[in-house]
Design brief:
C8orf32 fold, alpha+beta, 21 helices, 5-stranded antiparallel sheet
C-alpha cells in the first residue's frame, strides 16, 4: 500500500514539474482557455505513461491517448465527437506549423487551435516521458528532465519577463520528486526520517533561491533570446512613400472622397490616427515597425490615467494598409476574421490590413485614448525616441530652447511649442516636404521666401523641436473628426491631417496639434525674433516642482548601486538565517521522532534501540566506531562497566534464542541516559547535530558495499 501511495505521489510530482512550463503560456495567450486542452493532454499522457501491459499494448494505448489529446484541440472539426478527415488535416497542419504560427502572432494571442496545439504537444510529450521514466527506472533526477525541457521551450514563446515564482515552483517540484524517489528506493530503514528532514530543506532552498534571484537578478529576462527575431514578420509594408506625404494630396482633391465611417462611444475625440512615424533622417519621417497578426487582445493597459473609448469602423474608400484607431488600442473584434486578417504593432499602436482593398471591412476596437488635463503638468517623459540627425541646424535647436525657456514642466514646454507653431500661417499652397532645410525655412525664414506651411510641416517641426530639448515625440497621420451625424463621423479625404504626439510616463502618447487651418494671414519673410513667433505670453499649465526619475544603479534600474547591494545583502542574510533555522528544526524533529520510535520498543528490540541511541551520543561527540567493531569491543575502548553491561545485553538480544524481558531494556535505557548531555549550550547544540543521521547513512552504505563484495546482493 505504501509503495502504491509513493508511486502515485511520484506521478503527481511529475505533473508538478511540467506545470510551471504550462503556466508560462499565460503570458502568451490572452485568456486561460488554453488550459482546458492542455489539462486533457496532461491527463491522457499520465495514464499512458503509467500503462504497463506489454510493449505493443503500451504503444497502442499511448498513440490512442495522444490522438484523444490533439482531437480535443480540434474538436470543432469532429462529427458527433469522432475525428474526421478535416480533423486529421488540421492536426497534421497544426503539428507541422503551429510553432511558426506562434512566432507570427501578436501578444497576447487568442486561444486558437493552431496556436494551442504546440503547448499541447509539448505538455503531452513532457508528461508522458516524465511518468514513463518515473515508473520504469530508479533514476532519481531523470524524471525532472522532461519538465525542464518543456519549461525552456515555453520560455522561448513567452514574453521577455522574469518568472521567478514559476522557476521556484519547478525547482521545488523537482527537488521533492528527487527526495521522494531517493527515499523510496533507499534500502535503509524507511522510517520517514529522510522525508521529514528533506521537505523543509527543499522549501527553504526554493524560497532562498527565488529571493536571491529577485534581489540580485543575474538576468531579468528582458534581453532573453527571442526566436521571433530569426523569422521575418508576417506582414511587411512598402516604405516607398511616407504617409505624411499623402496629406496634401488628399486635401487638394477637387471633391471630398468618402473614406470611412466611425461611431465612437466614450469621450469625444477630434483626431483619429492611422499611422505613427518615429524615425527621422533629416529628410523624411518614416517607420519600420514590424507587424504581427492581431487577436482579440492587442495590448495591456499601461496608461491608468487614460480614458477608455470604443469605436466601430466601416471602411469605404480608405487606401490601405493603415486603419483608423485612437490612442493605444486594447481589444479588437473583426466579424470576418477568417477572410481578412489584421496586423498590429504593440509599440506604436498602429493597426494595418495587408489586403489590397479595404472596401467593406468592418471592425470594432476599444482603446486607451489620451485626454489632456491639468494632471499632465506633473508627468515626466516616457520611453520614446529623441534621436535627431547630426546635421540639425543650430538655429532650430536654439529656437526650441528659446520657445520653452519660461516653462518649468514637460507639459508646459510642449504646450509652448504647440502655441508657437499654431500662430504660424497656414498655407496649403506652400512647398511640400519636411526636410530640415524646409523646416528651417519655415521657422527662421530665408530672404525672398514665405514661411507659410501646412499640417505636414507643422507636425514635423513640432516633433523636431521637441526632440531638440530631449522630449520623446513622433509624428501622427490621420484625420480630423467633426460634425457627427447620429453619433457617427463620416470621414472624407478633405479631413486628412497630421499632428505630433508626446510620450508621457504615466499617460502614453498624447496628441498635440500644432496646426491652425483657419490662420491664413501671411507674415513678412525674414528671421523673426522668437518672441514674435511665440506671440503674447500666456500662462503655463499649473507648475509643479521639477522632479527627476529615480535612476537606481549604473544600469538605470531601481535597486541598483549601494541601495541594491544593501537590499541584496539583507535578503541573502535573512534567507540564510531562515535556511539554517529550518534545517536545525528539521534535524531536531527527525532525531526526536526516531528516538521516540526506538523507546517504544521493548525486550530485545528495546535493548538494541538503546544501544543505537548510545552510538548516536558518541557521534555527537565526533566518535563513531567502525562497522566491523562488536559491542564488546566498543565498550572495552571506553572502559565503562555500565556500557559493558549494555554491550553484553545487545549480544544476548541478537544471538540468544530466548527473548529478553522488559527489565533488560529498562537497564539499557538507564545507561543511555548517562550519556545524554544536560541542559547546557552543548546539549542544545547536540539536539540539532546532524552527525548521527549522517553516520547512519554512512553505515548503511558500508554494509551494502560489504554485502556486494561478498556476492550476497
Amino acid at each position: 500500500m505504501r509503495a502504491r501511495v509513493a508511486a502515485a505521489a511520484e506521478v503527481v510530482l511529475c505533473l508538478g514539474t511540467v506545470a510551471p512550463g504550462v503556466l508560462l503560456y499565460l503570458d502568451f495567450f490572452a485568456t486561460a482557455a488554453y488550459l482546458a486542452p492542455v489539462a486533457v493532454a496532461a491527463s491522457t499522457a499520465a495514464l499512458a505513461g503509467v500503462w504497463r501491459y506489454g510493449p505493443w499494448r503500451t504503444v497502442g494505448f499511448a498513440v490512442t491517448a495522444f490522438a484523444v489529446a490533439v482531437t480535443w484541440v480540434y474538436r470543432d472539426t469532429t462529427s458527433y465527437g469522432l475525428p474526421t478527415g478535416d480533423t486529421a488535416k488540421a492536426v497534421v497542419g497544426g503539428v507541422a506549423s503551429g510553432w511558426t504560427s506562434m512566432l507570427s502572432v501578436g501578444l497576447p494571442a487568442d486561444s486558437e487551435p493552431d496556436l494551442v496545439i504546440t503547448p499541447v504537444l509539448c505538455t503531452w510529450c513532457a508528461v508522458y516521458a516524465a511518468v514513463a521514466i518515473a515508473t520504469r527506472t530508479r533514476q532519481a533526477l531523470a524524471p525532472a528532465v522532461p519538465g525542464l525541457i518543456a519549461f525552456v521551450v515555453a520560455l522561448l514563446f513567452s514574453k521577455g519577463e522574469p518568472h521567478l515564482l514559476l522557476a521556484a515552483g519547478f525547482v521545488l517540484a523537482s527537488l521533492a520528486l528527487v527526495l521522494l524517489r531517493s527515499d523510496r528506493f533507499d534500502t535503509a530503514e524507511r522510517s520517514g526520517g529522510g522525508l521529514a528532514f528533506g521537505v523543509p530543506v527543499i522549501v527553504c532552498v526554493a524560497t532562498l533561491g527565488a529571493a536571491v534571484a529577485w534581489a540580485v537578478p543575474v538576468a531579468t529576462g528582458e534581453d532573453r533570446f527571442d526566436p521571433r527575431t530569426l523569422r521575418p514578420p508576417p506582414v511587411t509594408l512598402s516604405t516607398d512613400l511616407t504617409p505624411l506625404a499623402r496629406v496634401k494630396a488628399q486635401l487638394r482633391e477637387p471633391a471630398p472622397r468618402p473614406l470611412f465611417d466611425i461611431e465612437v462611444d466614450g469621450a469625444e475625440q477630434s483626431l483619429v490616427r492611422t499611422s505613427a512615424l518615429d524615425d527621422y533622417d533629416g529628410v523624411t519621417w518614416s517607420s519600420d515597425d514590424p507587424y504581427l497578426f492581431a487577436g482579440t487582445r492587442l495590448s495591456a493597459n499601461t496608461a491608468p490615467a487614460a480614458v477608455t473609448v470604443s469605436a466601430r469602423v466601416r471602411v469605404e474608400g480608405l487606401p490601405g494598409p493603415f486603419l483608423p484607431t485612437f490612442g493605444r488600442p486594447v481589444s479588437l473584434d473583426v466579424p470576418d476574421r477568417g477572410e481578412r486578417r489584421l496586423a498590429f504593432n504593440s509599440r506604436s499602436g498602429v493597426l494595418v490590413c495587408p489586403e489590397p482593398s479595404l472596401r467593406g471591412l468592418t471592425y470594432s476596437f476599444s482603446a486607451d485614448a489620451d485626454v489632456r488635463d491639468d494632471s499632465l503638468a506633473q508627468s515626466l517623459p516616457g520611453p520614446g525616441s529623441t534621436d535627431l540627425p547630426d546635421d540639425l541646424p543650430t538655429e532650430l535647436r536654439q529656437l526650441a530652447k528659446d520657445l520653452t525657456r519660461d516653462a518649468t514642466t514637460l507639459y508646459g514646454k510642449v504646450t509652448a511649442l504647440e502655441r508657437s507653431l499654431r500662430r504660424l500661417p497656414y498655407d496649403l499652397a506652400a512647398a511640400p516636404g519636411h526636410s530640415l532645410a524646409r523646416l528651417k525655412t519655415m521657422l527662421v525664414g530665408e530672404p525672398g521666401t514665405s514661411p507659410g506651411a501646412y499640417a505636414e510641416q507643422h507636425a514635423a517641426a513640432f516633433a523636431v523641436l521637441a526632440r531638440a530639448i530631449g522630449v520623446p515625440s513622433r509624428v501622427a497621420v490621420g484625420y480630423r473628426l467633426h460634425d457627427p451625424t447620429s453619433g457617427t463621423y463620416h470621414v472624407t479625404s478633405h479631413d486628412a491631417h497630421a499632428w505630433a504626439e508626446v510620450m508621457f510616463a504615466d499617460r502614453g502618447w498624447v496628441a498635440f496639434d500644432p496646426t491652425d487651418p483657419t490662420r491664413t494671414e501671411s507674415t513678412p519673410p525674414g528671421n523673426p525674433d522668437p518672441a514674435v513667433i511665440a506671440g503674447p505670453a500666456q500662462p503655463n499649465p499649473p507648475t509643479v516642482d521639477p522632479r527627476t526619475t529615480p535612476t537606481g544603479g549604473e544600469n538605470g534600474r531601481p535597486g541598483g548601486g549601494w541601495q541594491g547591494l544593501i537590499r541584496a545583502t539583507a535578503v541573502v542574510t535573512i534567507g540564510a538565517v531562515a535556511l539554517a533555522v529550518s534545517a536545525a528544526v528539521g534535524i531536531a524533529c527527525v532525531k526526536a521522532v526516531r528516538s521516540r520510535r526506538r523507546r517504544a520498543a521493548g525486550g530485545a528490540a528495546g535493548v538494541i534501540a538503546a544501544w543505537r541511541e548510545i552510538l548516536d551520543r558518541f557521534a555527537e561527540r565526533g566518535s563513531w566506531p567502525p562497522i566491523t567493531s562488536t559491542p564488546q569491543e566498543v565498550a572495552a575502548q571506553l572502559d565503562d562497566e555500565g556500557l559493558a553491561a549494555v554491550a553484553a545485553l545487545v549480544t544476548v538480544a541478537i544471538y540468544a534464542p530466548h527473548e529478553l524481558d522488559e527489565s533488560a531494556a529498562a537497564r539499557a535505557w538507564a545507561v543511555e541516559a548517562k550519556y545524554r548531555r544536560p541542559s547546557t549550550p552543548r546539549g542544545v547544540i547536540a539536539l540539532v547535530d546532524p552527525r548521527p543521521l549522517l553516520a547512519d547513512r554512512r553505515e548503511t552504505r558500508q554494509r551494502q558495499a560489504a554485502l556486494r563484495a561478498l556476492g550476497t546482493v
